[in-house]
Amino acid sequence: MHAIVEFFEHISPLTRAFIIAGGLVFFWMLEGIIPLFTFRYQKVRHAGLNLFFTLTTVVINFIFAFAITLTSDWAVRENFGLLHLIQLPQWLYLLLGLMMLDLISAYWIHYIQHQVKWMWKFHLVHHTDTWVDTTTANRHHPGESVFRAVFTLIAVFVSGAPAWLVLLYQTISAGLSQFNHANIKLPKWLDTAIGWVIVSPDMHKVHHHFTQPMTDSNYGNIFPFWDRLFGTYIKVEKTSNLKYGIDTHMKEEENNNMSNLLQMPFQQYRAPVGSKFSEAKPQPENQ
To answer: Does the model's pTM come out above 0.90?
Structure first.
């Protein structure tokens, strides 16, 4: 445990970038060996589009890093935050810290974006991908990246997490997001077993089905129990029957066009079928 703390206390930005990029390359290669779906798409072009949004996320995270580090250092110095209420063994301190950061800056912000219409319009960019693979993990509109960075800042303030723990969390979060978005097919027993400890590919892919209610389910990123605890978990036995995307934006000229994706939050709103935001009134039954 001490070695983990020591490593992330002194990790360089280059090392973190290498770890995250290495995970992306690994899952990219694994998709060619054990794919869940055989997509008919230009894999490199698709990756290029999604990696553009990865770069915008990196830039925004870099901008917020200063505020997050200042908040973390202040919390540790002042013994502020839930992690400082009682003395904990280091392993439990690490685990509870990861859980709090994951709950606030992953699960809650994800859930909220599905409940607030104007936030959903930014998150929509992530859901429009009809070819979900490991590069989809960071397909977030810059506006959404700001939301997530703000909630990370809130999570650090509430928990009082030290900088090394934040870096550990962000590295694990990025790696597991690449894993659970990857277009890979694991043996059912293995995916099920993994799904009790961390969010598995089959669990998260349900969230990317193109219609409700599955779109509004399985929000977790690291820990799978938040969805079970808050009643947002849906299990699908045969994930090969899923269809990716969102029913309002299934045309490739919209969901595979960088310019349109950047403009999407500012376009006229389209409510997904069955959405709580739908303005369509039910039609009377024929008598």
So the answer is: yes
